[in-house]
Write a structure and sequence with these properties.
Keywords: Hydrolase. With 345 residues, the chain is of the alpha/beta class. It is built from twelve helices and ten strands. The longest helix has 16 residues.
Length: 345
C-alpha cells in the first residue's frame, strides 16, 4: 500500500519475475544468445533513474531476500503477479519458470499470484504439462511469448490452429487472463513476432478470456490502441510504459498515457513494474506524482485523477484476478441520484 497526501493506493504489480540468467545456467553452445538476452535486458534498466541501476552480476541472478525487499518492503506492492519466461533453448533450467516462481510464492503466502505459460509447438505433451501446472499452482493467468525460439522455429502466432486448442483449454480450466508479450524486442528475438494483429484475431474468437497486451505493442502504439478499442476484452499492460518511458522519455510517456486513456479508458490499464528490469518504488511514487504536462502538443489529454490512478495501480488487476482489496483502499461507490418525482422502491 502506498499513501500520499492522505490518499491510499492498493498496489498490484501485474508483471514481475524471479529469473536466473547466470553463466552457470547457460546452455552449452547457446552462450551467445543467453548472454546477449540478459545484456539487452540490462540495457533497458538504464532507462530508469541512475541510482536504481544494478551491476550486471546482480542483474543476472538476484536473491529472494532482495526481491522481497524491493517489492514489499520498499516498493509499496501489496500483491505481485509472476509472468514466466521459459527460454529453455538458452537457459538449462529455464530463465524465469513457473516452478521457480511457484516455489517462492508458496514460501510467502498471499504475496504472489503465479501465472504459467503454454507453447502450442509442444503439442499433446505440452497440453498435459500445462494442465498439471495450472492445477498445481492454481493459475488464473498465462504469459505467452510468441517470439520464443524452439528448435528451428523462431516464434508462433495466436492464429495457429494449435494455439486455439490451448485457449479452449484455458476456458475449460478457468484460466481467464492471457498476458501476451507484444512490445520492444529483445535480442536476438524477431521484431515481427511482436505484432499485435494475432491478438485482434483471438480476442474476437475467445470473448470469455481477457487479453492483456504487455508493453502495449510499443513502438506500434497506434496499432494497439485502434485494435484494443474495438475489442472489449483487450487490456493494456503498462510494464515498460512506466518503467521505460516515465523517467527517460517523459514527453513520449505523456503521449502514450494520453492515447491509452483516450482509446481504452481508466478501467483497462494494468500497472506492472517489470522487476527486476525496474524496481517498483520509483515507478509507484513517480506515477502518483505525475500529471499530464501543460503542453500544446498534449492538449487533447486531460490530467489523470486520483481515482483513475488508483484503478491503474491496483484495482483493475484486483478485479481481473479476484484479489480481495481492504475496504479502506476501495473506491467509494458513485452516489445514486434519484430522478425528481420518482419514489424509492
Amino acid at each position: 500500500m502506498y499513501e500520499k497526501d492522505g490518499e491510499k493506493y492498493f498496489v498490484v504489480d501485474g508483471h514481475t519475475h524471479f529469473w536466473d540468467a547466470s553463466p552457470e545456467n547457460w546452455v552449452e553452445g547457446q552462450e551467445e544468445y543467453a548472454k546477449g538476452w540478459i545484456e539487452c535486458f540490462h540495457a533497458y534498466q538504464g532507462l530508469g533513474p541512475q541510482d536504481t541501476h544494478w551491476p550486471i552480476d546482480r542483474f543476472q541472478k538476484y536473491s529472494e531476500e532482495l526481491m522481497m525487499h524491493d517489492l514489499f518492503e520498499a516498493g509499496h506492492v501489496d500483491v505481485a503477479i509472476f509472468q514466466p519466461t521459459n527460454l529453455r533453448q538458452w537457459y538449462r533450467n529455464g530463465f524465469n519458470t513457473t516452478e521457480a516462481d511457484g516455489a517462492l510464492a508458496e514460501k510467502h503466502p498471499g504475496k504472489f499470484l503465479v501465472n504459467t505459460y503454454f507453447d502450442p509447438r509442444e503439442g499433446d505433451a505440452g497440453m498435459k504439462a500445462f494442465e498439471e501446472r495450472v492445477k498445481r499452482y492454481h493459475c488464473k493467468g498465462v504469459k505467452l511469448y510468441t517470439a520464443e525460439w524452439l528448435g528451428d522455429s523462431r516464434g508462433w502466432s495466436l492464429k495457429d490452429p494449435e494455439a486455439s486448442r490451448y485457449l479452449e483449454k484455458c476456458e475449460e480450466l478457468g484460466v481467464r487472463n492471457v498476458h501476451v508479450h507484444k512490445g520492444p524486442t529483445i535480442w536476438p528475438l524477431d521484431k515481427d513476432a511482436f505484432d499485435v494483429s494475432d491478438v485482434d484475431y483471438v480476442a474476437t474468437n475467445f470473448q470469455g478470456l481477457n487479453f492483456i497486451v504487455e508493453h502495449v505493442g510499443l513502438p506500434r502504439i497506434e496499432d494497439f490502441c485502434f485494435m484494443a478499442t474495438q475489442e472489449r476484452n483487450v487490456y493494456a499492460g503498462l510494464a515498460v510504459v512506466v518503467g521505460g518511458l516515465m523517467h527517460a522519455r517523459p514527453k513520449f510517456f505523456a503521449k502514450v498515457m494520453g492515447e491509452l486513456m483516450f482509446w481504452l479508458g481508466e478501467d483497462k490499464l494494468i500497472f506492472g513494474a517489470d522487476y527486476a528490469i525496474w524496481e517498483p518504488k520509483w515507478q509507484v511514487e513517480g506515477f502518483v506524482d505525475w500529471t499530464m504536462p501543460a503542453d500544446d502538443d498534449l492538449s487533447d489529454f486531460p490530467p489523470l485523477t486520483v481515482a483513475q490512478k488508483k484503478k491503474i495501480l491496483g484495482l483493475n488487476a484486483a478485479r481481473l484476478y479476484d484479489i480481495e482489496v481492504p475496504e479502506e483502499l476501495k473506491l467509494e461507490a458513485p452516489k445514486v441520484v434519484e430522478p425528481v418525482g420518482v419514489p424509492n422502491p
